[in-house]
Fold this protein.
Amino acid sequence: MDLLQSTTTSKTRRRSSPNARGSFIGPLEAEAMQILFHLEEGSVRDVIDQLAYKAAYTTVMTTLARLSAKGVLTRRMVDRKFLYRSRFTEEEWRKEAAMQAAVRFLGTPTVSREVLMSCLRQVIALQSEAAPAQTHLANVKRRSGRFPGPIRNPQTPDA
């Protein structure tokens, strides 16, 4: 099952390597998917309200429409707006994203697999050291009730 496989758009061609298989999933697409996993179903406005940063309505609308066209999301019209829902479980999404990242990583033609694997082990070791801090931050975010957005300090105004 290739959840992320689709034709690429001109925007994704600029970001992904010429030999990349499938489509590039950008940061906004990935964040929108995480939000929809949390909400189960949502509109463009629902996704915007949960983003960690400000984004134009049309940008998010286009992103969700493209994910729907790629077959990753389903959408249905309710009261003159589309509601989006993932066609896959979060676990299926994560596994497929990891698989495609691994294929791209190991498919780098100018670097040997030994060097790539050595770098991967180093990154895993560095992330393992940082994991306790990341787990604490995730728990604080969960308790704040705002997922996946940033934790805001009530004493400082939003920028």
Summary: Residues 133 and 157 are 25 Å apart (CA to CA). The chain is about 55% helix and 10% strand.
